[in-house]
Amino acid sequence: MASLISCPHCGSRPKEEFTVKGAVVKRPEPDAGETAWMDYVYLRDNPRGRYREYWHHTSACRRWLIVTRDTVTHEIESTIDAAEAGRAEVRS
């Protein structure tokens, strides 16, 4: 895994300051069926290649980030603030 993560708020920081919290998965609608909620809560892909995950900058700004990385090479493609990404998604 890359040793530095580019935090949009703090700049390049050691990966040890972050905690990986899991895949970015679209939340089902509240009235979605049991199967949709079961898949959302318990089932995850184990992809080879590009993958989006929530990371928490635990030891610094404590912001939630969305990190896009390659699961094979561990190269990080991008990091964005999760709250800003959510606001952009609502606007579109």
TrEMBL record:
It comes from the Bacteria. GO terms for biological process: tetrahydrofolate metabolic process. InterPro entries: SoxD, SoxD_sf. One of its GO terms (molecular function) is sarcosine oxidase activity. This is Sarcosine oxidase subunit delta. It comes from Martelella endophytica.
